[in-house]
User: Which sequence fits this backbone?
């Protein structure tokens, strides 16, 4: 069986992961998720990108917010607010159950990989959902006013501060998990897909895990990135704002250069082609409907097959 590996952040990446999941035999997909957004909040371990991918593949994702669960209730947050608790980061009641159980299992020594696998199975997911690492990696956003933990920057401050750089605390001590290492080096994998996630805060933390870039460079399968830019802008989120604040050109040249060490091909939205020294394929990459998600997935798989042959 031809397996496919996707490397994903949260909302944008999960859309392509869902397209791949619906296109492939479900057990053929492995999604490696960013954990740089993870943090400890209200005594709980929060793993937004793992959970967004899990809820999306399980058909449970909140269609309006993109994160959390559809049909969520918020009694916990209302009760927390009434007693003066922290409410800047919202956990819905159903989502809270997952957080309590994950935190309980981490406390008894279970690995994040095992917990993520078990939750995915319980929710009926047949693909493999993997955290990029089992130890803490925490994205820190550097701003002129000082460093900000990722969710303080992203949710509490709504990405308003100017970004001057990023640190991935703990990345130097992280190790590729056996599952991640096996997936990337698997000779039965026909394509490794870098999802259209934010390169700085969703993909770079994964690449910061020691050994990841080398593993991608040595991978038997072609590595294909889907650009997060459409019409020279990001569909959603702070990708374009970060690029301009970091003094980078707002084009796919920047995306290609970012992944240049291991990239075999780049998929861009029509009109966003750039002169780069690697194969490029233009196809509409906006993924609002499920049909668009599977259409992009099919283009990615066909492009990957062309690169492999
Ligand atoms: N994003 C928000 O904008 N506000 C929130 O209150 C919020 C809560 C939240 C809870 C659980 C979860 O898994 C994700 C949550 N997100 C929230 C999304 C999250 O901050 C971002 O999507 C990612 O970290 C960026 O990929």
Assistant:
């Amino acid at each position: 069986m031809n397996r496919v590996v996707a490397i994903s952040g949260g909302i944008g990446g999960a859309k392509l992961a869902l397209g791949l999941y619906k296109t492939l035999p479900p057990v053929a997909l492995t999604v490696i998720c960013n954990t740089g957004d993870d943090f400890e909040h209200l005594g709980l371990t929060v793993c937004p990108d793992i959970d967004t991918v899990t809820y999306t593949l399980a058909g449970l994702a909140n269609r309006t917010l993109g994160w959390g669960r559809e049909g969520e209730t918020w009694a916990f947050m209302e009760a927390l607010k009434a007693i003066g608790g922290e409410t800047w980061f919202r956990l819905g009641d159903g989502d809270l159950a997952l957080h309590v159980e994950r935190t309980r299992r981490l406390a008894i020594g279970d690995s994040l990989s095992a917990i993520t696998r078990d939750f995915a199975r319980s929710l009926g997911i047949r693909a493999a959902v993997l955290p990029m690492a089992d130890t803490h990696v925490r994205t820190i956003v550097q701003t002129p006013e000082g460093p900000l933990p990722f969710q303080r920057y992203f949710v509490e401050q709504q990405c308003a501060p100017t970004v001057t750089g990023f640190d991935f605390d703990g990345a130097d001590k992280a190790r590729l998990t056996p599952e991640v290492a096996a997936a990337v080096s698997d000779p039965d994998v026909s394509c490794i897909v870098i999802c259209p996630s934010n390169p700085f805060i969703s993909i770079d933390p994964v690449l910061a895990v020691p050994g990841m870039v080398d593993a991608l460079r040595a991978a038997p399968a072609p590595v294909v990135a889907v650009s997060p830019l459409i019409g020279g802008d990001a569909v959603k989120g702070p990708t374009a704002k970060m690029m301009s604040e970091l003094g980078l050109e707002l084009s796919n040249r920047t995306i290609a250069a970012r992944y240049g060490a291991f990239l075999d091909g780049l998929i861009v939205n029509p009109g966003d082609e750039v002169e780069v020294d690697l194969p490029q394929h233009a196809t509409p990459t906006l993924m609002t409907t499920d049909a668009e998600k599977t259409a992009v997935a099919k283009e990615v798989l066909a492009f990957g097959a062309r690169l492999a042959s």
Notes: The two ends are 17 Å apart (CA to CA). The longest helix spans residues 290-308. The longest strand covers residues 3-8.
